[in-house]
Amino acid sequence: MSRRQPQVAVIGAGSWGTAVASIVARHSPTVMWARSAEVAEQVNEKHTNDRYLPDFPLPPSLTATSDLQRAVEPSDIIIMGVPSHGFRGALNDLAPFLRPWTPVVSLVKGLEQVTHRRMTEIIDEVLPGHPAGVLAGPNIAREVVAGYAAAAVIAMPDRHLAAQLGELFRTKLFRIYSTTDVVGVEIAGALKNVFAIAVGMGDGLGSGDNTRAMVITRSLREMTRLGIRLGAESDTFTGLAGMGDLVVTCTSPHSRNRHVGEQLGRGIPMPEILAGMKQVAEGVKATSAVMKLAADAGIEMPIAREVDAVVNHGSTPMQAYRGLINTVPGHEVHGDSP
Question: Among all residues, which ones are annotated catalytic?
Answer without folding.
Answer: 192
